[in-house]
Amino acid sequence: MTHMTRTSGVQPISSDRHTFWQRIEFACAVCAVFLSAVNFLRTNMFYFTLSDLLFCAALGLRALTGGLPLRLWGRASATVWLCGLVLLCSGLMISSLLSTAPIRGIVIVGQYLFAYLVVALVVCGRDLGTMWTFAKVYVASIFLMCLHGIYLIHIDGQKNTAFVSGNGRLTGFVERENECAAVIALAMPMLMLLASKGKVGKVYAIVIGATMAYGILLTGSNTGLAGFAFTFLGFMVLSGSWKYVVVGLACLTPFAIWIVHSGRDYLPAVFQKRVLGALETGDLSQAGTFDHRVELMHEALGRVQETLWIGVGADQYQVTSAIRQPVHNLYLLLSTEGGIMAAIGFGVMIAATFLPIVRTYRVPGGAAYAACALVSVSMFALMANAFPHLYGRFWTVPIILTLGLATSYCRAVEKRSIGNGALPPARILRAGRPRSGLGPIR
Question: Where are the membrane-spanning stretches (predicted)?
Fold first, then answer.
């Protein structure tokens, strides 16, 4: 026998005998989040990591013992999100079935469904305390990756390995330089949220943040550095506390002046070679492979018209390209491989995330949660201009996690408001001015 609940899907009635399996499910979910950026633990046949295996185990156990959160981060936003995902996958699948490699379409569509649906079903719909645990575990994973990279480059001196490229750039557990930098940058809003809510001590947060910043330098990634600056400054401004803005600028300004005048030689050599020159001269041609990426984008723009309705098929851009490489711009890549339907679908998914963000901002004490989610989603949307397919779980876990945190906070405030006889959730006013007199939840 089963029954339906307001926030979940199908749930078994029995409870006590499922406690053990619920703990196993929680452990699997925590380990999956921790290992989401550990890309090297995967099969050789296709893209399936150890983290994916744990996500599958957690999904199955959660379906059997606790029910699945069909609403994810809200009924309307989840519906729009799923509609966008269906459009994206349909565009890729239809184009692939009409191409010379239909099997690749099945594989790539499966990857997108796993990254944007399975991960969301495992992570979302939990209480706020559990979401805090996920956030701490994820930040700890990225911190350990940066520490590991510092050890390999400065102590062990490794090069041309799975974790350090031949020219000395950190690839980390992700095994890709620019992706490693982007993943580090995506973890920054969560660290700042943890620190602002007292979940991580300020001293620990500074140490972790400095280590992550140095990890960005070791990747030698212009994209990663820009993303790190965007998330850091964006959270400080949007969180609603100008104290953090003033303190942050007061700390960063002397450091920047020192770097310009006498600290250049203390920076990693790969950062000086690939990033610092472009920053000092303003010449983007010195910024790594910028010119080559622009060339790929020009080629893709020239092909969009002929692939407007039916694309060339998933993973077929590099096969049909004169340069024999995929364009590093997801919007253009989806337009050429899956047609306009796939590109619109991805845009719809991004747009669907803003409703829970706005709702969280209007909840008392929700500004920091909303800022964390907004900065993460905005950076993800911007990063899509610099990378090909974004179905790696190291991309989606931080985005889904920040949205889940915001939604869980909203539900916690709503439950407390109703439990204390306060106004219904729909009538909660803007942050800092709750009519019920209730303070924010930490």
Answer: 20-41, 53-72, 78-98, 105-123, 135-153, 204-237, 244-261, 330-355, 367-387, 393-410
Q: How far apart are CA 269 and CA 167, in angstroms?
A: 10
Q: Tens of pLDDT along the chain (442 residues)?
A: 444 444 444 444 455 566 888 999 999 999 999 999 999 999 988 899 999 999 999 999 999 887 788 888 888 999 999 999 999 999 999 999 998 889 999 999 999 999 999 999 999 999 999 999 999 999 999 999 999 999 999 999 878 888 999 889 999 999 999 999 999 999 999 999 999 999 999 899 999 999 999 999 999 998 899 999 999 989 988 886 666 667 667 766 776 676 666 666 677 878 877 776 666 555 555 555 667 788 888 888 988 888 889 999 999 998 888 878 889 999 999 999 999 999 999 999 999 999 999 999 999 999 999 999 999 999 999 999 999 999 999 999 999 999 999 999 999 998 876 555 544 444 444 444 444 444 556 6
In the 8-state DSSP scheme, what is residue 274? I
Decide if 151 is inside a domain: yes
Would you tell me how many other CB atoms lie within 10 Å of the CB of residue 208?
22
**Half-sphere exposure in the Cβ direction for 12 (13 Å, CA):** 14
- Classify residue 375: in a domain, yes or no: yes
8 Å CB contact between 339 and 95: yes
Q: Are strands 2-4 and 10-12 parallel, antiparallel or unpaired?
A: antiparallel
- Position of tokens 């080559």? 292
Q: Phi first, then psi: what are they for 151, rounded to 5°?
A: -65, -45
pTM given for the model: 0.87
Residue 212 falls within a domain, yes or no? yes
Radius of gyration of the chain (CA): 22
Residue 440 forms part of a structural domain: no
Question: How many independent structural domains does the chain possess?
Answer: 1
| Other Cβ atoms within 10 Å of 33 Cβ, number | 28
Ramachandran angles phi, psi of 199, nearest 5°? -80, -20
* SS3 call for 4: strand
Domain that holds residue 47: 2-427
